[in-house]
Amino acid sequence: MPSTIRTPLVLYTTLYAMTILLASSASAHHELTKEMAESPRSPDSTEKAVTVTRFLRDGGTNDDDIAHNEGRGFLSDKFATIAIKSGMKIALKSNKAPRHVLEHLVNTGNLLTEKNLFLWLKYVVNYRKKMGSIWADDVYVFKTLSDFLPAEKLPALFKAMEKNPNFRELGKNLQKLM
């Protein structure tokens, strides 16, 4: 009979190896996502199959916001949101300027989606409460946003801010500066 101490060690080692194998096999061949696929036009077709390029991980067009939005990553999105919120709490405790926080958000690879920008705007509101509105006035917030967002996306952000009761007044003030 095997020792009770050795059995969990073997089990954990096997689970660890399987986890590494699964993780590496799931992310190993990203260069093969734009392969050619042959498929006949109908199942009973006798003519030769037509070769079609299929984009498996892409929206199919350049500059497409949908291309970077896969519906399978909701769990990682939740963890990213929690990480961003906790990072902003730490930044608020250490009195980091809102521009520095937004720079850090961009430099860590986070896309400037509406949700992430609302998290940043919540940080700005909390920063104003703590430090006073003189340190992060509307002109400063508008300048920071315009440095990181294209000018054509700012009106959409301001419209979304007007729909959110927490940012309605700030959105109106920023829209006046445009």
UniProtKB/TrEMBL annotation:
Keywords: Signal
Xref: InterPro entries: RXLR_WY (IPR040786)
Signal peptide as annotated in the record: 1-28
Residues of the RXLR phytopathogen effector protein WY-domain domain: 127-176
Protein name: RXLR phytopathogen effector protein WY-domain domain-containing protein
Lineage of producing organism: Eukaryota, Sar, Stramenopiles, Oomycota, Peronosporomycetes
